[in-house]
Amino acid sequence: MAKRSAPEPSPTALAVLVLLHEAPMHPYRMWQLIKLRGKDEVINVRQRTSLYQTIDRLLRADLIAVRETEQEPRRPERTVYTLTDRGRTTAVAWLRQMLADPVSQFPPFPAALAHLPLLSPDDARRQLQHRAARLREELARLERQVHEHAGALPRLFLIETEYQLTLLGAELEWVTSIVEDLSDGRLSWTEEWLRAIAAQFEPAGSSDDS
């Protein structure tokens, strides 16, 4: 029988494999631990169904296996999963890959910036001011979280939050500078100017008559 190909690595899939590296457990326990340890800051498990879908993919790929089914009084039946040998080696390979290799992603903010001229400079400034305020709120929330746990947890277990703080701080600094440039007129545009620029980059040979 041909070996089933492993699914593409993802934060949720890696989390499942790492949790099962600790011990066999059922999906609800995995979800509880992700939330309890604060890993839901970097792993999207808001919808528990996404966790179950990930588990199904890992099961089909033979990276995890069913160990047993639990049945407690007045509780639904729960399937306990365990890590396979292939799952163990895959988890290590995924972790190395995700640490070492930057991945091209397409987040919405850069895409919105690419179409900034659709708004007026004043409208764009207002929206970015709002973003800066939200970034400050998120920075303050994460800083409180680090402060609350700094005495109890070693840095190793807060390192992903440290990374998030660094990215948020850098983004806030950049967004604030763009807001200032828009306010002072150092960054601006008009409809006429945009049309003139667009005309300069018209593809060669294009014509309205074609």
Keywords:
210 residues, mainly alpha, Arc Repressor Mutant, subunit A, 8 helices, elongated
Notes on the protein architecture:
With 210 residues, the protein is mainly α. The chain has two domains: 11-100, Arc Repressor Mutant, subunit A (Orthogonal Bundle); 108-199. 59% of the residues lie in helices and 6% in strands. The chain is built from eight helices and two strands; from the N terminus they run H-H-H-E-E-H-H-H-H-H. It has a two-stranded antiparallel ribbon. Strand 1 and strand 2 form a beta hairpin. Helix 1 (11-22) packs across helix 4 (85-100). It is elongated and about 70 Å long. The mean pLDDT is 92.
Strand arrangement, major sheet: 1-2
Give helix and strand order, one letter per element, not per position.
HHHEEHHHHH
Cα gyration radius (Å): 24 Å
Query: How large a portion of the residues is in β-strands, by DSSP E?
Result: 5-15%
Low-confidence region ranges? none
User: What's the domain count?
Assistant: 2
The description of the largest β-sheet is: 2 strands, antiparallel
Please count the helical segments: 8
How much helix is in the residues? 55-70%
Distance between the termini: 56 Å
Structural class category: mainly alpha
Please provide the count of β strands. Answer: 2
Average pLDDT for all residues: 92
Tell me, what's the shape? Answer: elongated
